[in-house]
Amino acid sequence: MLPGAAHDFPDSSTGAPPRRRRFRGLNACAPIHITQQRLPHWVQEGVTYFVTFRLADAVPVQLQQQWQQEREAWLRFHPEPWTTEVEDEYRRLFPERMDQWLDAGMGECHLRCAELRDAVERHVRHFDGERYDVDAFVLMPNHVHLLVTPRAGQALFELLKAIKGTSARTCNKLLGRTGNSFWMEDSYNRIVRDSEELTAFRRYIEANPVRAGLRPGEFTLSMQNVLYVE
User: Is residue 163 domain-resident?
Assistant: First the structure.
């Protein structure tokens, strides 16, 4: 695979078409579990998530602390459920602002190295089609965006913990270092609400390298488009 190129991957080398999985967006009538790490996360069975995780030094500590304090203050004055307008304001002030910082390319940007990206990609794909289904992802120099659907009985955070933990060990070994944090502990995730949002997230992932001004060879993009909408 050439880094910096988009590919669709069949399930095997036999030429069989890629697997397909029916997309399920957020179901407002089904139970939603809210877990609390450093950030609150909504969890629901059978849905697709847009996930972002980033390198430990992708955002300076002072900037991260400022963002966190502003976010906590905003949340105190905006209890859920939110209107569409309030949710749009939240996304503009916090996730979108964080993405702008990430695209600025701060930190050492270890994933600019193709060997490290290849290692992360192997761990992302390791249980793809078995424990979860990956629809699309992009490996940027200091962060990862991922559209993923856990399979029945699989917990999103356990899956992310495994991907991040194993890839961190591999990458730290390649870097010749020990005892260093490779990924930031927490991850951002959002349940994809509907088919329109699924399309928007796919476009966001595909366009991210261009928005960040990256050259071929500085990123890895995969648009598998496993999910289909009935």
Answer: yes
